[in-house]
Amino acid sequence: MSNYTKEIGEVLRALKVEASGLEISNEIIGRRVITRVTTENGCLRKSSLARPDERRSSEINRLVKKNLYRLLVESAGVEEVPYGIMHGVRPTKIIQRWLREGFGVTSHGVIDRDKIVRRLMSDFLTERDKAQLLTEVALRQVPIIKRGEKKISVYVGIPFCKTRCLYCSFPSNVLPAEEVVENFMRALRRDVEAAAEAIERYGLEVETIYIGGGTPSALPEKFFAAMMELVHEKFWSAGVEEFTVECGRPDTITAEKISVMKKFSVTRVSVNPQTMHERTLEIIGRKHSVADVIRAFNQLRAAGIWQINMDLIIGLPGERLNDFKETLEKILELAPDDVTIHSLAIKRGSRLQKRLSDELNTLEDFNLPGDEEVRLMSEHAAKILRGENFYPYYLYRQGYMSGQIENVGWCRRGAEGIYNVEIMGERQTIIGVGAAASTKVPDHAAWKIWTAFNAKDLKTYMNDLERYITRREEILAQVYGGVEQ
Ligand code: SF4
Q: What's this model's pTM, rounded to 2 decimal places?
């Protein structure tokens, strides 16, 4: 294989085409990209011209992908995929950039949706309904993403869960001995205090706080209360618009934890059933019941938690369209404010992927629904949710997703998870504390995003914490303190 290995790999993986037996080459002449694919049956050739209004290098990469995709689909009969050659995690960012540059905005300031949809279809070969979905989501995010540079979000990473889900690739640990949790809490305190000092030093205003993981509510009562108190004391102020706690596993939600969350002004909680079928919960290793979901939800509602999000997954082992329909119906009976529909991804680091790569199981053993069925589930979700007055407000994609579709957050009007939008937009500073947390500081003047990552591994995070704090301080100083790196 010649150059552009990454771009070629992305197309071949998306189209599920084996590279062996193919010789792929690209020739660049000025703004023209010529792609040739040679097989034992002969040579195919496609040529495209780069747009003059885009950065040349990214245009060349895009055309390498576009030429190859079109050759395989049009001349070799390979089946198209919904997102064409769009492979990034945050596709709506492309539209937001176009809007900032004035593309799709008329001279009267009116947004021309059709023009954006047409360009997505032509530049990235997406299906029309995906181009329309992306455009809808991107436009809904515009008023949320436009925030002042001093407004920031804070992410707190609590890396514990009660058990590990079959598909989980997060750096989550099954809750360890009390002594280890105590050590983690000590490290977290130091991390939080250092971040809070930096926030004060640079006059930053915390707009949203998001406690994720893991499952933060997996912490035993006393640690949960101490963690909440610490986060509230150091980051909360009357200016905080949204304070989210992920309580993904409903069996970790207790009356005591709910009252702690109320006390510390939490506005949004995630309860994640994933499915409302007991047999699937058992297969995926969730170790909670459908009754736990209903009990936890009702307890949160009764306590007056303003906004409740629920995550569902389509494409789970053994499930078909009718199973998903039942799940969605049961979820909507509870009337959540926000529903995120994920498509199962077989990610590196998950037990699922490991069992497959170690050949302990085959894909057939897990009885996964096919891509077409997963797409039907997604279409069903969209139809039902729209009928219930939900609209899509954030979207992201991952590698190896069933159906090659997307994860979409749906909410009722006014219930948008602001943090979800900000993290996808990458326009706002997000300060990360805790294990596996990342800090991202966009430098708008330099068109750059500075990043600092806390270790995913719990031990490394605790041992090397000072190093992570120093790196975070450096990138904050770079943007807010006028310090050159
Ligand atoms: S609840 Fe979430 S973080 Fe915890 S094991 Fe399951 S997928 Fe991973």
A: 0.94
